[in-house]
Design a protein that fits this description.
Strand order of the largest sheet: 6-7-5-8-9-10
Strand content: 15-25%
Order of helices and strands: HEHEHEHEHHHEHEEHHEHEHEH
Radius of gyration: 25 Å
Helix content: 40-55%
Largest sheet: 6 strands, mixed
Distance between the termini: 81 Å
Number of strands: 10
Structural class: alpha/beta
């Protein structure tokens, strides 16, 4: 009996993914987002057993999807024996409540899923506090869904209004927790700011990029550190800083949390303090997984987040296209005279394209296979030395007294 209980507890939840195509989001993008959502679900420990999409002018305010699709989703959940449905966009409290009532399974949205992954990945008290703050901020406007069991109660003496009273009590508790966590994070932020000031006058370089592009692997390679690296989304939440020496130049290299499209607002806000390393760095290495079919979209998403963080600051950025060992261009018929499609471009084609876009400040490497790492080291040495010499013109000059 004990063994069977243990087996049940270790079974992965079976999930169905749902996405909606709107005039602002074509079907191709919806499928791409659902592929990413599947990776997120897998990272969280769920087994994806089916997907469902619908074209709508705008999501249904009551159930997100239309009534016909809702029936189809219900049938899919029953047939596939799913116990979890994950929607690719953020749902309101009303939508979650209505969906759970109709489908009789757990409902998550993309935001809740990402928060759950962050909660599982947080290792330090700082990261845990940041995630906890984001979770409370997500939960606060959705408290009503927690009290749907009260709808089944009959009216009568002593049974009028307990739900609203409890909701108000919980809201006050959560608001107090948010205030305490905010104050706690401010205190830690001040401590971390002091630590950064005590790092001396060394040039600072930050690794930025989409999640799961290989930043931590590159960090380990350049700094000979032992940063946790895994083929999972958001493997790294805490900023890691290591000293790196290239020839006669030393600098500090930091690894930061990865970005993602549709990153929950609550997380962006709570993790802004962690990303101070980006704001205060002298040079950014923007790492890109060139083997991913949507890598250009990833670049746009990361650039938008960087711009929000920098708030108008000018920052030198070197593009680092990683995982070249995994890149495979689509086959092209030799007799095909049509314009070259992006998925048919070779690495040489991409290199020429991005060399022009980035004014030469880009390298193509494989951190995992250690391919062309010397090229990256050369660029790093050149750029860091340039910053050091401009800031500290006598730093590299030895004098005899």
């Amino acid at each position: 009996m004990i063994e069977s209980k243990i087996k049940i507890s270790q079974e992965r939840e079976k999930a169905v993914l749902v996405g909606v195509s709107t005039p602002g989001q074509p079907e191709e993008k919806t499928r791409e987002y659902l592929d990413e959502l599947q990776f997120l679900a897998d990272t969280a420990g769920a087994e994806v057993v089916g997907t469902l999409t619908q074209k709508l002018q705008h999501p249904n305010p009551a159930t997100y999807i239309g009534s016909g699709k809702l029936e189809e989703l219900g049938e899919m959940v029953r047939t596939l024996e799913a116990n979890l449905v994950i929607f690719d966009d953020e749902l309101s409290a009303t939508q979650i409540r209505n969906l759970e009532k109709f489908l009789q399974v757990k409902i998550l949205d993309r935001t809740n899923l990402i928060l759950d992954i962050f909660a599982g990945r947080a290792r330090t008290s700082y990261a845990r506090a940041q995630v906890e703050l984001a979770q409370y901020e997500y939960l606060l406007p959705r408290l009503t869904r927690m009290w749907t069991h009260l709808e089944r109660q009959k009216g009568g003496i002593g049974l009028r209004g307990p739900g609203e009273t409890q909701i108000e009590t919980d809201r006050r508790i959560i608001q107090q927790k948010i205030a305490l966590l905010t104050e706690k994070l401010k205190k830690i932020d001040r401590q971390m700011a002091t630590q950064r000031k005590h790092r001396g006058d060394m040039v600072r370089v930050a690794l930025v990029g989409y999640t799961n592009v290989g930043k931590s692997t590159l960090m380990n390679l350049l700094s000979k550190a032992n940063v946790f690296a895994e083929n999972k989304l958001f493997a790294t939440l805490d900023t890691t800083v290591r000293k790196v020496v290239l020839q006669d130049v030393a600098f500090l290299l930091s690894d930061t949390v990865g970005f993602i499209r549709k990153l929950p607002t609550q997380l962006v806000e709570s993790f802004k303090s962690t990303l101070d390393e980006v704001r205060e760095s002298d040079l950014l290495l923007h790492v890109v997984d060139i083997s991913h079919p949507a890598f250009e979209d990833h670049i746009i998403a990361v650039n938008q987040t960087i711009q929000e963080l920098l708030q108008g600051q000018e920052k030198k950025i070197v593009m680092v296209f990683n995982k070249i060992d995994l890149y495979q261009p689509a086959k092209r018929d030799p007799d095909d005279l049509s314009p070259l499609q992006k998925d048919q471009m070779t690495l040489d084609d991409w290199q020429q394209t991005w060399m022009a876009k980035a004014a030469g400040d880009c390298v193509f490497i494989s951190a995992e296979k250690k391919i062309k790492i010397d090229s990256l080291r050369e660029v790093l040495y050149r750029e860091v030395k340039k910053i050091r010499d401009a800031r500290y013109p006598y730093a590299g000059i030895k004098t005899d007294i």
